[in-house]
Amino acid sequence: MYTFLKDKILDEENREIMMDWETGLMQEHAKVVTENGGDILEIGFGMGICANFIQQANINTHTIIEIHDEIFKHLLEWAKDKPNVIPIKGDWFDSIPKNKKYDGIMHDTWQEKNFHHFFAKVQTLLKSKGIVTYYNAEVKESLEFNINKFKWCDLSIKEIKVNPPKNMNCQYYYRDTYLIPKLVYNY
User: Fold this and answer.
1) Residue range 22-185 in CATH 3.40.50.150
2) Rounded Cα distance, 52 and 48, in Å
3) pLDDT tens for residues 137-184?
4) Domains of the chain: which residue ranges?
5) d(C-alpha 157, C-alpha 145), whole Å
6) CA distance linking residue 117 with residue 119, whole number of Å
7) Which of 33, 39, 142, 186 would be a feasible disulfide site paired with 106, CB 3.0-4.6 Å?
8) Which residues contact 48 (CB under 8 A, 6 or more apart)?
């Protein structure tokens, strides 16, 4: 059972899985993923920080896939007054609508078991020049190495300053800079 606090979500082991310090980087991810407008796929809702920024952009549809029951309930409540939001309950790997292409895809999940399939699958979901971004804990060299082996996209990276809490519970990010990957489908 997750614990929902004003400034964070804690998992069953009391680990912080999302926190409000991420607001600035989620705003930047939202800018990247909505550059083309159109149809956006967001994988993982969390606290809804990125979703709020995506909704401020000029988009047509905003499909959000969330696997966790409690977070999905928050997503449904959040989406009540947003007619362009399509909430989907399930694992993104099995739940992405068939025969739908997206102008932008944002991925941010906790303890992702299928992320190793993400880059192979995502290229089949993009419109021409579609954009992918995702929560990134890698340093620049490993990010470039891992992404540049994919021939289907062009990679650019934006570095921003962040201020994650310096405590033992926030184990998912600890650097003072964060790299936002932008992958553009080059077909």
Assistant:
1) yes
2) 6
3) 887 887 787 777 778 888 899 999 998 877 655 666 778 889 999 999
4) 22-185
5) 13
6) 6
7) 33
8) 74, 75, 78
